[in-house]
Design goal:
Rossmann fold; eight-stranded mixed β-sheet; about 30% helix; alpha/beta
Amino acid sequence: MTTAAQPLDLTAADGYILGGTRYPARATPQGRLVVAGATAVPQGFYKRFAEFASARGFDTLIFDYRGIGRSSPPSLKGFRMDLLDWARLDLAAAIEAMASDAVPLYLVGHSFGGHAFGLLPNHHKVTGFYVFGTGAGWHGYMPMAEQLRVLTMWNLVLPPLTWWKGYCPWKMLGLGENLPLDVFRQWRYWCRFPHYYFDDPGMRGIEQSYARIHTPIIAANALDDLWASPASRDAFVRGYRNAPLTRIDLDPKMLGGTIGHMGYFRQTAEPLWENALTWFTNLPQAVPTP
Protein backbone atom coordinates (compact mmCIF):
# COMPACT_ATOMS: atom_id res chain seq x y z
CA MET A 1 0.00 0.00 0.00
CA THR A 2 1.33 3.44 -0.94
CA THR A 3 1.33 5.67 2.13
CA ALA A 4 3.19 8.80 1.04
CA ALA A 5 1.27 12.00 0.32
CA GLN A 6 0.45 12.20 -3.37
CA PRO A 7 0.17 15.54 -5.24
CA LEU A 8 -3.00 15.53 -7.29
CA ASP A 9 -4.43 17.85 -9.94
CA LEU A 10 -8.19 18.26 -10.05
CA THR A 11 -10.06 19.61 -13.06
CA ALA A 12 -13.22 21.60 -12.35
CA ALA A 13 -16.20 21.47 -14.70
CA ASP A 14 -15.11 24.76 -16.31
CA GLY A 15 -11.62 23.41 -16.98
CA TYR A 16 -9.83 25.22 -14.13
CA ILE A 17 -6.96 23.16 -12.67
CA LEU A 18 -6.77 22.88 -8.88
CA GLY A 19 -3.87 21.66 -6.79
CA GLY A 20 -4.54 19.00 -4.18
CA THR A 21 -2.80 16.36 -2.07
CA ARG A 22 -4.08 12.87 -1.38
CA TYR A 23 -3.22 10.88 1.73
CA PRO A 24 -4.01 7.19 1.13
CA ALA A 25 -5.42 5.17 4.03
CA ARG A 26 -2.71 3.59 6.20
CA ALA A 27 -5.03 1.31 8.17
CA THR A 28 -8.09 -0.83 7.50
CA PRO A 29 -10.11 1.26 5.01
CA GLN A 30 -12.99 3.15 6.60
CA GLY A 31 -13.92 5.30 3.63
CA ARG A 32 -12.78 8.34 1.71
CA LEU A 33 -12.73 11.88 2.98
CA VAL A 34 -12.49 15.38 1.48
CA VAL A 35 -11.58 18.49 3.48
CA ALA A 36 -13.47 21.67 2.52
CA GLY A 37 -11.32 24.42 3.97
CA ALA A 38 -11.94 27.94 5.20
CA THR A 39 -11.65 31.21 3.28
CA ALA A 40 -8.01 32.24 2.68
CA VAL A 41 -6.65 29.11 4.40
CA PRO A 42 -4.23 27.05 2.28
CA GLN A 43 -4.41 23.27 2.15
CA GLY A 44 -1.21 22.86 4.16
CA PHE A 45 -3.06 23.99 7.27
CA TYR A 46 -5.06 20.76 7.11
CA LYS A 47 -2.05 18.48 6.60
CA ARG A 48 -1.94 17.22 10.18
CA PHE A 49 -5.62 16.36 10.09
CA ALA A 50 -5.20 14.55 6.76
CA GLU A 51 -2.32 12.51 8.16
CA PHE A 52 -4.38 11.73 11.26
CA ALA A 53 -7.34 10.55 9.17
CA SER A 54 -5.08 8.56 6.87
CA ALA A 55 -3.61 6.68 9.85
CA ARG A 56 -7.16 5.70 10.85
CA GLY A 57 -8.13 4.28 7.50
CA PHE A 58 -9.52 7.30 5.65
CA ASP A 59 -8.22 7.99 2.14
CA THR A 60 -8.10 11.78 2.48
CA LEU A 61 -7.91 14.70 0.03
CA ILE A 62 -6.98 18.29 0.82
CA PHE A 63 -6.91 20.97 -1.88
CA ASP A 64 -6.86 24.70 -2.57
CA TYR A 65 -9.79 26.62 -4.02
CA ARG A 66 -9.06 28.64 -7.15
CA GLY A 67 -7.10 31.79 -6.42
CA ILE A 68 -5.58 30.25 -3.26
CA GLY A 69 -2.25 28.50 -2.70
CA ARG A 70 -1.44 25.87 -5.32
CA SER A 71 -4.61 26.78 -7.24
CA SER A 72 -3.65 30.42 -7.66
CA PRO A 73 -2.85 32.05 -11.03
CA PRO A 74 0.53 33.76 -11.54
CA SER A 75 -1.09 37.03 -10.45
CA LEU A 76 -4.35 37.74 -8.65
CA LYS A 77 -4.54 41.18 -10.20
CA GLY A 78 -7.18 40.97 -12.91
CA PHE A 79 -8.22 37.45 -11.87
CA ARG A 80 -12.03 37.23 -11.94
CA MET A 81 -14.26 34.63 -10.36
CA ASP A 82 -17.40 34.13 -8.30
CA LEU A 83 -17.03 33.19 -4.63
CA LEU A 84 -19.59 30.45 -5.19
CA ASP A 85 -17.19 28.85 -7.71
CA TRP A 86 -15.32 27.48 -4.71
CA ALA A 87 -18.31 25.30 -3.93
CA ARG A 88 -20.16 24.68 -7.19
CA LEU A 89 -16.99 24.00 -9.21
CA ASP A 90 -13.96 23.43 -6.98
CA LEU A 91 -15.32 21.40 -4.07
CA ALA A 92 -17.57 19.61 -6.57
CA ALA A 93 -14.44 18.53 -8.49
CA ALA A 94 -12.87 17.20 -5.30
CA ILE A 95 -16.04 15.21 -4.54
CA GLU A 96 -16.03 13.74 -8.05
CA ALA A 97 -12.38 12.75 -7.74
CA MET A 98 -12.92 10.90 -4.46
CA ALA A 99 -16.38 9.39 -4.92
CA SER A 100 -16.28 5.60 -5.17
CA ASP A 101 -18.75 2.76 -5.58
CA ALA A 102 -16.75 0.66 -3.13
CA VAL A 103 -16.56 2.83 0.01
CA PRO A 104 -18.51 5.77 1.48
CA LEU A 105 -17.33 9.34 1.03
CA TYR A 106 -17.30 11.82 3.91
CA LEU A 107 -16.75 15.55 4.05
CA VAL A 108 -15.05 17.56 6.81
CA GLY A 109 -15.52 21.30 6.61
CA HIS A 110 -14.08 24.40 8.21
CA SER A 111 -15.87 27.76 8.19
CA PHE A 112 -16.62 28.37 4.47
CA GLY A 113 -16.82 24.61 4.08
CA GLY A 114 -20.15 24.80 5.90
CA HIS A 115 -21.43 27.17 3.24
CA ALA A 116 -20.03 25.12 0.38
CA PHE A 117 -21.82 21.86 1.11
CA GLY A 118 -25.24 23.34 0.49
CA LEU A 119 -24.17 24.55 -2.96
CA LEU A 120 -22.77 21.27 -4.27
CA PRO A 121 -24.36 19.83 -7.40
CA ASN A 122 -23.13 16.38 -6.28
CA HIS A 123 -23.88 16.51 -2.55
CA HIS A 124 -25.73 13.20 -2.81
CA LYS A 125 -22.37 11.41 -3.12
CA VAL A 126 -21.45 12.39 0.46
CA THR A 127 -22.54 10.05 3.28
CA GLY A 128 -21.86 12.43 6.18
CA PHE A 129 -20.71 16.00 6.73
CA TYR A 130 -18.90 17.24 9.85
CA VAL A 131 -18.12 20.96 9.93
CA PHE A 132 -16.17 23.08 12.40
CA GLY A 133 -16.55 26.82 12.87
CA THR A 134 -19.11 27.66 10.23
CA GLY A 135 -21.22 30.77 10.70
CA ALA A 136 -23.11 33.63 9.08
CA GLY A 137 -20.22 36.13 9.22
CA TRP A 138 -22.31 39.02 10.56
CA HIS A 139 -20.46 41.22 13.04
CA GLY A 140 -23.51 41.40 15.30
CA TYR A 141 -22.82 37.92 16.63
CA MET A 142 -19.32 38.89 17.74
CA PRO A 143 -18.19 40.40 21.06
CA MET A 144 -18.04 44.19 20.95
CA ALA A 145 -14.26 44.45 20.67
CA GLU A 146 -14.23 42.00 17.76
CA GLN A 147 -17.13 43.85 16.12
CA LEU A 148 -15.12 47.05 16.13
CA ARG A 149 -12.04 45.33 14.78
CA VAL A 150 -13.96 43.59 11.99
CA LEU A 151 -15.91 46.69 10.96
CA THR A 152 -12.69 48.71 10.86
CA MET A 153 -11.09 46.06 8.68
CA TRP A 154 -14.08 45.77 6.29
CA ASN A 155 -14.77 49.49 5.96
CA LEU A 156 -11.51 51.36 6.52
CA VAL A 157 -8.49 49.10 6.10
CA LEU A 158 -9.20 46.59 3.34
CA PRO A 159 -11.08 48.68 0.71
CA PRO A 160 -8.16 51.05 -0.04
CA LEU A 161 -5.60 48.23 0.14
CA THR A 162 -7.68 46.14 -2.24
CA TRP A 163 -8.12 49.06 -4.65
CA TRP A 164 -4.35 49.62 -4.57
CA LYS A 165 -3.38 45.98 -5.13
CA GLY A 166 -6.22 44.80 -7.36
CA TYR A 167 -6.89 41.95 -4.94
CA CYS A 168 -7.40 41.64 -1.19
CA PRO A 169 -3.94 41.54 0.48
CA TRP A 170 -5.10 39.34 3.35
CA LYS A 171 -1.54 38.04 3.83
CA MET A 172 -0.27 41.57 4.50
CA LEU A 173 -2.42 41.59 7.64
CA GLY A 174 -1.28 38.14 8.72
CA LEU A 175 -4.76 36.70 8.22
CA GLY A 176 -4.09 34.04 5.57
CA GLU A 177 -3.75 33.81 1.80
CA ASN A 178 -4.51 36.78 -0.44
CA LEU A 179 -8.01 36.80 -1.91
CA PRO A 180 -9.27 37.46 -5.44
CA LEU A 181 -11.05 40.79 -5.79
CA ASP A 182 -14.47 39.26 -6.41
CA VAL A 183 -14.18 36.98 -3.38
CA PHE A 184 -13.42 39.96 -1.16
CA ARG A 185 -16.30 42.02 -2.52
CA GLN A 186 -18.90 39.28 -2.23
CA TRP A 187 -17.75 38.05 1.19
CA ARG A 188 -17.69 41.58 2.60
CA TYR A 189 -21.13 42.35 1.19
CA TRP A 190 -22.81 39.18 2.47
CA CYS A 191 -21.31 39.63 5.93
CA ARG A 192 -23.53 42.72 6.24
CA PHE A 193 -26.56 40.43 6.67
CA PRO A 194 -27.50 38.49 9.84
CA HIS A 195 -28.13 35.35 7.76
CA TYR A 196 -25.40 35.94 5.17
CA TYR A 197 -26.57 35.57 1.54
CA PHE A 198 -29.89 34.09 2.59
CA ASP A 199 -30.87 37.70 3.43
CA ASP A 200 -29.58 39.17 0.16
CA PRO A 201 -32.53 39.99 -2.16
CA GLY A 202 -30.20 39.43 -5.10
CA MET A 203 -29.62 35.82 -4.01
CA ARG A 204 -33.28 34.88 -3.72
CA GLY A 205 -33.71 31.17 -4.42
CA ILE A 206 -30.34 30.06 -3.05
CA GLU A 207 -32.14 28.58 -0.06
CA GLN A 208 -33.59 25.90 -2.34
CA SER A 209 -30.11 24.47 -2.88
CA TYR A 210 -29.75 23.94 0.88
CA ALA A 211 -33.25 22.55 1.23
CA ARG A 212 -32.25 19.66 -1.06
CA ILE A 213 -29.69 18.41 1.46
CA HIS A 214 -30.71 15.30 3.40
CA THR A 215 -27.21 14.21 4.43
CA PRO A 216 -26.52 13.87 8.19
CA ILE A 217 -24.58 16.92 9.45
CA ILE A 218 -22.77 17.84 12.64
CA ALA A 219 -21.92 21.53 13.10
CA ALA A 220 -19.42 22.05 15.93
CA ASN A 221 -18.49 25.55 17.10
CA ALA A 222 -16.24 26.66 19.94
CA LEU A 223 -17.61 28.94 22.61
CA ASP A 224 -14.53 31.15 22.14
CA ASP A 225 -14.79 31.33 18.33
CA LEU A 226 -15.09 35.10 17.85
CA TRP A 227 -15.92 34.83 14.13
CA ALA A 228 -18.34 31.90 14.28
CA SER A 229 -20.02 31.64 17.64
CA PRO A 230 -22.82 29.11 18.18
CA ALA A 231 -25.34 31.92 17.54
CA SER A 232 -23.68 32.73 14.22
CA ARG A 233 -23.67 29.05 13.31
CA ASP A 234 -27.35 28.68 14.12
CA ALA A 235 -28.20 31.67 11.92
CA PHE A 236 -26.56 29.99 8.93
CA VAL A 237 -27.26 26.27 9.36
CA ARG A 238 -31.00 26.83 9.60
CA GLY A 239 -30.69 26.75 5.81
CA TYR A 240 -30.12 22.98 6.05
CA ARG A 241 -33.72 22.63 7.12
CA ASN A 242 -34.29 19.14 5.72
CA ALA A 243 -31.04 17.57 6.89
CA PRO A 244 -30.58 15.61 10.14
CA LEU A 245 -28.44 18.26 11.84
CA THR A 246 -26.75 18.16 15.24
CA ARG A 247 -25.23 21.27 16.79
CA ILE A 248 -22.30 20.90 19.20
CA ASP A 249 -20.97 23.74 21.36
CA LEU A 250 -17.31 23.09 22.17
CA ASP A 251 -15.89 24.20 25.51
CA PRO A 252 -12.33 25.42 24.86
CA LYS A 253 -11.26 23.89 28.19
CA MET A 254 -11.36 20.50 26.51
CA LEU A 255 -8.34 21.54 24.43
CA GLY A 256 -6.42 23.30 27.15
CA GLY A 257 -8.33 26.57 27.19
CA THR A 258 -8.30 27.91 23.62
CA ILE A 259 -9.87 26.93 20.31
CA GLY A 260 -10.95 30.15 18.58
CA HIS A 261 -11.66 30.11 14.86
CA MET A 262 -8.51 28.30 13.76
CA GLY A 263 -7.87 25.90 16.62
CA TYR A 264 -10.12 23.19 15.21
CA PHE A 265 -7.26 22.06 12.99
CA ARG A 266 -4.21 22.75 15.12
CA GLN A 267 -2.33 19.80 16.58
CA THR A 268 -4.04 20.16 19.97
CA ALA A 269 -7.39 19.41 18.32
CA GLU A 270 -6.84 15.67 17.90
CA PRO A 271 -9.72 14.85 20.30
CA LEU A 272 -12.06 16.78 17.96
CA TRP A 273 -10.73 14.86 14.96
CA GLU A 274 -11.24 11.57 16.75
CA ASN A 275 -14.85 12.49 17.48
CA ALA A 276 -15.51 13.35 13.84
CA LEU A 277 -13.97 10.17 12.46
CA THR A 278 -15.78 8.03 15.02
CA TRP A 279 -19.08 9.64 14.01
CA PHE A 280 -18.37 8.81 10.37
CA THR A 281 -17.67 5.16 11.13
CA ASN A 282 -20.92 4.89 13.09
CA LEU A 283 -23.06 6.21 10.23
CA PRO A 284 -24.92 3.72 8.00
CA GLN A 285 -22.29 2.59 5.52
CA ALA A 286 -24.40 2.49 2.37
CA VAL A 287 -22.69 4.32 -0.48
CA PRO A 288 -24.94 7.08 -1.93
CA THR A 289 -26.20 6.37 -5.41
CA PRO A 290 -25.80 8.87 -8.27
